[in-house]
Amino acid sequence: MLRTILSVAAVFSLVSGVPAVAAPAEGAYLLQFRTTLSDSQRDQLERLGVRLGAFVQDGTYVARMTSTARVSKLGYVREVKPFRAEPRIMALGGSSGYLITLVEQDERDQKTVADKVKSLGGTVNEISASREHIMATLDAGQAAQLAKLPAVIAIDPVSAPETDMAISRESSGANYVESVGGYKGQGVRGEVMDGGLRTTHQEFRARPPLMHTGNSSSTSHGTSTYGQIFASGVSSAHRGLLPEAQGIFAIYGSGDRYAHTKQLVDPAGQYRAVFQSNSWGDSLTTSYNSISQQMDRIVFDHDLLICQSQSNAGTRSSRPQAWAKNVLSVGGHYHYNTLDRADDKWNGGASIGPAADGRIKPEISNYYDRIDTTTSTNDTAYTTSFGGTSGATPITCGNAGLMFQMWADGVFDGGPGKGRDVFASRPHAATAKALLINTANQHAFTGTTHDQTRTHQGWGTASVRNLYDRAKAGGWKLPVLVNETDLLATGQSRKYTVASNGQTPLRATLAYTDPAGSPTAAKATVNDLTLKVTAPNGTVYWGNNGLLAGNWSTSGGVANTVDTVENVLVQTPAAGNWTVEVIATSVNVDGHVETSATDADYALVVS
């Protein structure tokens, strides 16, 4: 018997007598608004069938809808025009790996795009738990076809991962905080992600590394970076920053990084990490691309402090991971094996900023040369010549581990002795970043062409001694310490009063974890929070004004609109009450998902 199979549309036509019409296809559009969207406007758009996806810039989102007729007539809509992703094609002569970024986090879209990859003859290598990314092997034609899908916002090529201490403990104050408070990393857990690890080295036997992935036979680089943080001190000259902490190790390129990071911060899991150190990355670029966006998504969703090496090109060519807004990007300077900071130089070594959109990168820096650490030749082998930003990054992350321990112990919360669980009591990632930046030691410089100018050294070198001493001087508190507890919607602001005695510098640092940006945008920042500091006489200092050309802020200027870290640093503040204000200029994407409103949280540190 011949059986006829009808589509749903055809069946509907036969039953109703109404000619079947195919449902209109959903398209992708750039939807620009005249002002920052209110929640009521978002609700109206949703009722009209609009799916708002990634924020691009200047009030513009990538949106998906079946019809633009009614939407284009809304008074708060400026413009609607079709959108198509523009893939960065690298596989002109064959197939290579690509990271496909979707317009929004959606498992159905992931499946649709993954199925399309397969139908085109490409290979799906990984479907990320982020619901926003797919790793695939494609040729140029396949990448171009995928870019036509409404669910796709960017397609970027990926590469094989590339890799980029005798007095480092003394210079950062690690020895000092150990002597005054006994801080050696007890209770701290952190991960080093690198190429491989000699797990049997004598420096790791006291607390064997907790392996998060399998290992690799290429162990030289990873053994050195891991030892900078976790070497126990069998050889005192090579003792790590956290000799009594529990180290975790993972090899790079070992699966979905989003899911991997989620495991690190699972409170019921075995890792319970408070930081991750990375002295490697994808091929150098000057762009905020899909890999940068992926890192911002990871930090935004999982709230982990991730330290990332800037690389060693001596130019603005850097790891795409380092261009992410939410990681702590680490540069380097030659220290010539002396504690004297006056002879330190960038000297054309480390990769530098600014980012393509003008953001200040790196955010912090450390030793680039002659670092004493473990090596993998045998179980008792060491080197005195490790370096690059590969060496600067673990030093920075190790100091972050000491900061986490001090936080849990109550150094910033009324006094040491609380002895809380380090993971359970940890500050948010943005707060950890703000604390390290606010108390960093700057290299003196003047001008944007100076060897140690801002975009070479970042905000300086991490100092746990400064952290400890400034908290102690304030009765184990800082004048202002906001750990993402205060919320702002567009147009709102929050003010804090700080009393200055006129004797010590005033330092205010705002940092916020921003929603992932669009790889297609000219500016990576999504939300715009602004720092404003007002002196007792009414003089105004805007965040980062004057700080590209010198160590101290200059008054006046305008609000910063590109950076997610803003500082006001006043060398000789007038005595009296100063006002520190955080202003939500625009909240385009919900930055605090715990509430139903479209709002944003932030970290604020004043010392």
UniProtKB/TrEMBL annotation:
Signal peptide: 1-22
Record-linked PROSITE patterns: SUBTILASE, SUBTILASE_SER
Catalytic site positions: 194 (charge relay system), 221 (charge relay system), 390 (charge relay system)
Transmembrane segments: none
Record-annotated Peptidase S8/S53 domain positions: 214-460
InterPro entries in UniProt: Galactose-bd-like_sf (IPR008979), Peptidase_S8/S53_dom (IPR000209), Peptidase_S8/S53_dom_sf (IPR036852), Peptidase_S8/S53_subtilisin (IPR051048), Peptidase_S8_Ser-AS (IPR023828), Peptidase_S8_subtilisin-rel (IPR015500)
Keywords: Hydrolase, Protease, Serine protease, Signal
PANTHER family: CELL WALL-ASSOCIATED PROTEASE (PTHR43399:SF4), SUBTILISIN-RELATED (PTHR43399)
UniProt similarity note: Belongs to the peptidase S8 family.
Name of protein: Peptidase S8/S53 domain-containing protein
Organism from which the protein derives: Lentzea cavernae
